[in-house]
Design brief:
single chain, 769 residues, 14% strand
Length: 769
């Protein structure tokens, strides 16, 4: 790697640029010629359309390194080069012949198919090869020798997503180049190998920053939970609605209502777990304050016509969602109606209430989706402290666990209703049996009948099929007051069936609502899986981008000190330049600074641009005739107005005979100045080469600006042509002060300039007129 780093610096210094297709390919473009250098481990391939430049490059490299010229390229990576008058012919004859020779197949005849279509493969453990190295050598020679990395994602043994990418690092030795494809296989049956960029991010992340950020987040989350009347909070870089943040906490507590009902096995009736009931009521009522305040704000905006700038339909949909979320449906259905059901019609009403309870979770879960979606774009406290990558994984997995928690709670809740449905079915088969879930109105219940017609241990599907709720009822958790045990059992059931898309629920009965619940679990699992799969792909893209940024930053870290030294700036600017380049790399991960023009174009450095220009040009301006006696305030103003510009090869900066509209410093590259005898292009001329830091060109503008009638129609005419004289594909960089800016500066500081005020006196017969 040290050899490559040094070689790349030498090539870049001679005008080469690394190609986007790979860091081992360097290209130098001239006016009508091109030179290409390809690096392979410790070998170089040089080609181009000018033999003189190839020879010059060899001499330049020989001065820096101990190299040996191997002559014309004949054989490279299994490809043979044959030269002729018609051009270059590439073939793999030698590679194929060597391969056939090793396989002892030189005498074989060609065939369209390498093996008979009727050939059958058998697993014969007794017929073991004596020497497996024969096949290993052939396998190695047939394999691709390009270094490639990647990942693949397996679900249940089936590959569902994959990606491969060419490595952009250069191997440090020929041994590493040979073994890298074997040491880093593109896919693994156990998952995917983490990229080195992830390890680099985790290694560079300071634990103190991670801990302080996590503590800050927890503190704000507790504040939101304890004070739900807050409408917005500056927790992260953007103002986040508290609904999005508090939903993370309240969604854990929301399904508590579903665990409140219990079955009294002795009297065949429903009772309520008082501890769970009180906790659910308090937490639900406390959390619903935020929905009520939001409804009031929306209503107030509509009332005062403050919502016209937004879509009215969207606003009304938001209002409907908030109202649906705050309705006390579970309080009425579970705590009031369910324990006092009576008659078969009550079961139909309860099915409708079940639908409303499920529907109510849509507006309650949606803010959590927004939180997961935008988590990676937020900063803690708005202080530029980026949330660590592991927090994004935790938040997305948290959403998966919340879904399992909710579905498990519904499984418990529906299992109780399935038991109630069996009681109602049993009562219909005998006269005098009155169906009721109340423990008070159970005088007419036939307990023996209910026991016989609702068999659970052991089950009898011929009598009554409980379907997917059989396991829940057999566990007897509906009669236990141990909430933690019930929650753990139901949550584990939820995550198992959600992750398998309900494929484990094969014992479902013919009951319609039960099958709809299975379909809901299956669709929820598929949707969450597709979301997580998309998240994994986005995360891997982010990792790839971070890896590219890290490598580009290494190049910039080598270039920034050279730029500081070239322009004579203090090393204290290095930190500012690095931060600005890092900010730019978030937008363009391939951005590389080349000169001061690329430095000053960085958004983060715009406030510091006047100070940088002052450091660059203040001392130079003090040496210019006409500015030597000017104060620092005037010179600082001139420095501020100097604008950088880039000119490419053979470009004209100023042409002879045209108005001189600017004066400028050449800060990089060389320019030629010349004047023709007749003002045309065919006359003789005397050419002068001006290098950088060789003073100011266009000083005539100072005289023009001091005149009282300095109109643009009176701009001085240039008597010289200034043309770029690029060396080795370099650009010419100038810092120019335009005539309009100079005129403005002179008008602001008239006392600092010698304003030409001509006074004409006429003398007539001794009298002065």
């Amino acid at each position: 790697m040290a050899w490559y780093a040094k070689l790349s610096l030498v090539l870049e210094a001679t005008g080469f640029r690394s190609n986007n297709e790979g860091s081992s390919l360097f290209v130098r473009n001239g006016k009508s010629r091109r030179l290409v250098v390809l690096i392979y481990v410790d070998d170089l391939i040089i080609t181009g359309d000018c033999s003189d430049e190839i020879t010059a490059l060899k001499c330049a490299l020989h001065k820096k390194f101990a190299i040996k010229d191997l002559g014309r390229l004949k054989y490279f990576l299994g490809i043979e080069m044959v030269y002729s008058q018609k051009g270059l012919f590439l073939n793999q004859r030698k590679y194929i012949v060597d391969l056939l020779k090793d396989a002892e197949m030189l005498d074989c005849k060609p065939t369209n198919s390498p093996i008979s279509s009727k050939f059958k493969l058998v697993d014969d453990a007794n017929n073991v090869l004596d020497d497996i190295s024969y096949y290993q050598r052939l396998g190695w020679k047939c394999s691709c020798r390009k270094n490639t990395t990647g990942y693949c994602v397996f679900v249940g043994g089936n590959m569902v997503s994959w990606k491969s990418k060419k490595q952009i690092v250069v191997t440090r030795s020929s041994v590493e180049a040979e073994y890298r494809p074997w040491l880093q296989p593109p896919c693994s049956s156990k998952g995917f190998a983490a990229s080195s960029a992830v390890e680099e991010v985790l290694r560079k992340t300071k634990p103190s920053r991670m801990i302080s950020g996590l503590l800050s987040f927890i503190a704000h989350a507790i504040t939101v939970f304890l004070i739900p009347c807050i409408t917005r909070i500056d927790l992260l870089g953007k103002d986040i609605p508290v609904v999005a943040l508090s939903s993370v906490v309240y969604l854990v507590m929301d399904p508590l209502f579903l665990y409140a009902p219990l079955i009294n096995g002795a009297t065949k009736c429903l009772v309520l777990d008082n501890k769970v009931k009180i906790a659910a009521l308090v937490l639900r009522s406390w959390g619903d304050i935020r929905y009520l305040l939001n409804i009031f704000n929306i209503y107030d905006n509509i009332k005062h016509r403050q919502w016209r700038w937004k879509s009215p339909n969207k606003k009304m949909l938001e209002l409907a969602g908030e109202m649906l979320a705050v309705l006390p449906i579970p309080q009425v259905a579970i705590l009031v109606f369910l324990p006092n059901m009576r008659g078969s019609n009550s079961l139909k009403i309860m099915k409708f209430l079940n639908f409303l309870i499920l529907l109510q979770y849509l507006p309650r879960v949606y803010p959590l989706y927004l939180l997961c979606k935008n988590w990676n774009t937020w900063n803690i406290g708005g202080k530029g402290l980026k949330l660590p990558n592991w927090s994004l994984i935790v938040v997305n997995m948290y959403g998966y666990l919340i879904a399992s928690h909710i579905l498990g709670a519904f499984w418990y809740f529906f299992s109780i209703q399935r038991q109630i449905g069996c009681w109602e079915h049993a009562c219909r088969s005998q006269n005098g049996c009155e169906f009721s879930t109340s423990c008070v109105q159970n005088a007419h219940k036939n307990f023996t009948l209910l026991e016989n017609l609702c068999p659970i241990n052991p089950p009898d599907k011929r009598v009554f099929d409980f379907g997917i709720f059989q396991g829940a009822l057999q566990s007897s958790m509906q009669g236990s007051t141990n909430f933690f045990q019930r929650w753990l059992l139901c949550s584990s059931w939820g995550i198992r069936n959600l992750s398998s898309y309900a494929s484990n629920l094969t014992e479902a009965s013919a009951y319609g609502w039960e099958n709809l619940f299975v379909i809901l679990i299956s669709i929820s699992g598929l949707v969450l899986f597709m979301y997580l799969l998309g998240f994994v792909q986005e995360f891997m893209k982010k990792v790839d981008k971070l890896e590219t940024i890290a490598q580009t930053m290494e190049i910039n870290d080598r270039k920034i000190p050279d730029i500081l030294s070239e322009y004579g700036l203090s090393s204290t600017w290095r930190r500012h330049f690095r931060l600005a380049v890092k900010g730019k790399l978030r937008e363009d991960e391939t951005y590389i600074v080349e000169n001061m023009f690329s430095i000053l174009s960085l958004t983060q450095l715009r406030p510091s641009a006047p100070k940088i220009k002052r450091s660059l040009f203040l001392d130079k301006l003090k040496k210019i005739d006409g500015l030597q006696d000017k104060g620092d305030e005037v010179l600082t103003k001139i420095c501020k107005q100097l604008e950088p510009a880039i000119y490419r090869e053979d470009s004209y900066i100023i042409r002879e005979g045209e108005p001189l509209a600017m004066m400028f410093f050449v800060t990089r590259g060389n320019v030629l100045t010349y004047a023709t005898n007749n003002g045309g292009s065919n006359g003789s001329s005397r050419t002068i080469q001006i290098e950088k830091d060789n003073g100011l060109y266009g000083e005539e503008l100072l005289t023009w600006a001091e005149r009282p009638s300095c109109k643009f129609s009176n701009l001085p005419i240039s008597d010289l042509t200034v043309k770029c004289h690029n060396k080795l594909n370099e650009v010419v960089e100038i810092f120019a002060l335009h005539a309009t800016d100079l005129q403005l500066i002179v008008s602001k500081f008239p006392g600092q300039f010698n304003m030409d005020r001509t006074l004409t006196i006429a003398v007539d017969n001794g009298n002065v007129n």
